[in-house]
Amino acid sequence: MLHPGSHVKVLAQSVGQPKNPCEEIWIHIRQVRKKGTAFVGLVNTHTGRSQYHGLEFGMMISFEAKHIIDVGMMGG
Questions:
Q1: Quick one: which of 15, 25, 32, 44 has the fewest CB in 10 Å?
Q2: Which residue ranges make up each domain of the chain?
Q3: pTM to 2 decimal places
């Protein structure tokens, strides 16, 4: 069960441009909006492909469970 404080890895990709490269980023969940399906979190990865998906370290974003690809402790 995901809860505030959990770390999840999501796959970030650009909207409307499927051929651009994706990037795996870690997010620190801050709020559960809908149990098990919708969350608000803090981007906890310095991204290398932000020009494609627009996500930067420290941004608060809303996301859905379908975007999560891994759950666990953040790597160093």
A1: 15
A2: 7-71
A3: 0.83
